Amino acid sequence: MSSALRIAELPQEADTLEFGRRLGAALRAGDLVLLDGPLGAGKTVLARGIAAGMGVTGRVTSPTFVIARVHRPDSGNGPALVHVDAYRLGGLDEIDDLDLDTDLTEAAVVVEWGEGLAERLADSHLMLRIRRRPDDVREVALEPHGESWDARIPELLGR
Ligand SMILES: Nc1ncnc2c1ncn2[C@@H]1O[C@H](COP(=O)(O)OP(=O)(O)OP(=O)(O)O)[C@@H](O)[C@H]1O
Ligand SMILES: [Mg+2]
């Protein structure tokens, strides 16, 4: 599959939630997922779907004051989700202060607005770029970085 074909079309919010759910169900501790896209693209909606798929507690919101929030597994095992909104982060020092590399040993980390900062945390990560088309349909392009993601993409796309 060429990288150009790794695009999912998400017409409704429910489709974005479902896409996130499928991704979340496949996530493991140590996974880093970056969500890119303009204001209102649907990054938080996607993160909400991921949380549902992981079966973690707590409402996923666009945090105003909190930069990172930990969502623990609802029951028993499975990794926690650390949801980060890096919009207000000043730079590399501030992201280092969050100790996300420690989180990555036991949690999956999902970062909005993390490009240029968060990919330093793990060579291998999944970049999801969300685009809002003029007809309001969201297109999400999946960019795997590192070998393991390459192999996991077909499953995430349900193919
Ligand atoms: N197909 C769709 N997928 C996702 N969201 C959609 C879709 N269609 C409409 N929406 C609406 O678009 C908005 C997306 O908001 P969301 O907070 O997820 O964006 P965001 O990318 O996190 O923005 P921000 O950069 O401000 O954090 C929601 O109000 C949602 O209801
Ligand atoms: Mg958001």
TrEMBL record:
Transmembrane segments: none
Compartments it resides in: Cytoplasm
Pfam families recorded: TsaE (PF02367)
InterPro entries linked to this entry: P-loop_NTPase (IPR027417), T6A_TsaE (IPR003442)
Top-level division of the source organism's lineage: Bacteria
Cytoplasm is among the record's keywords: yes
UniProt keyword terms in alphabetical order: ATP-binding, Cytoplasm, Magnesium, Metal-binding, Nucleotide-binding, tRNA processing
The keyword Magnesium is annotated on this UniProt entry: yes
Primary site of residence: cytoplasm
Gene3D superfamilies to which the protein is assigned, alphabetical: P-loop containing nucleotide triphosphate hydrolases
Cited function: Required for the formation of a threonylcarbamoyl group on adenosine at position 37 (t(6)A37) in tRNAs that read codons beginning with adenine. Is involved in the transfer of the threonylcarbamoyl moiety of threonylcarbamoyl-AMP (TC-AMP) to the N6 group of A37, together with TsaD and TsaB. TsaE seems to play an indirect role in the t(6)A biosynthesis pathway, possibly in regulating the core enzymatic function of TsaD.
Family: Belongs to the TsaE family.
NCBIfam families in alphabetical order: T6A_YjeE
Entry protein name: tRNA threonylcarbamoyladenosine biosynthesis protein TsaE
Organism: Saccharopolyspora oryzae
